[in-house]
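Shift notes (night). Ran Membrane protein insertase YidC while the centrifuge was going.
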Amino acid sequence: MKKRIFLLVGLVFVMALLSGCTEINQPITSESEGFWNEYIVYPLSLFIIKVAEIAGGSYGLSIIIVTIIIRLVILPLMIKQTKSSKAMQAIQPEMQKLREKYSSKDQKTQQKLQQETMALFQKHGVNPLAGCFPLVVQMPILIGFYHAITRTREIANHNFLWFDLGSPDPIYLLPVIAGVTTFIQQKMMMAGTEHTGQMAAQMKMMLYLMPIMIVIFAINFPAALSLYWVVGNIFMIIQTYFIKGPDLKAAAAGNAGGAKK
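Came back to this:
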């Protein structure tokens, strides 16, 4: 688990460097230089502009359409990541038994624990890093799309529904919806998974902390980003419902049974 956490932290750090955080306020154009700008951010920015032209000049509608398209493109990766997480969750009881059996911290015992753990993975056909690979592929696309929205100046000059895309939502409705949908999406993702002790406390903290952070960011960021988050979250909620349907029904049945008691 620690190795996976370090790997994820490392991936986020690398992606932060690749995303060129110092260029967030610089407009993206065909003249922008660098691999990140030329091959990821600018093509996505151009895609938004072209879709807006097809959609009658509506950049808000374009953001919605492009967000859905991108989510559909990475959907197979999301399914793979979810299946990998479920497979790891399924063998957690057996892994816990191994940890208890080889609880000694001496080198020989720990080597035996690693061997038994790898044998357990092979027995069930589980790759502990399989859930990380889809994340590696998704991150450049999602961060690149984030940059494309913030750095495409045409977006800032248009409005959609009741808000200007280049300014924060004046009535804070989008930030609230972004926070609520983030909470729902995380709650659905956690359905069917069992955590105890410190891990359970951390998961619960993230369940409430992430929506609050999204609301704070959305209040201060351009409404175009809030729109992107809301559409992405709604897509994820629908996606999670179909991928984790049995888990969600089991969790709902368990809650209903607990309430009756």
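Residues 30-244 form one domain. The chain has one domain: 30-244.
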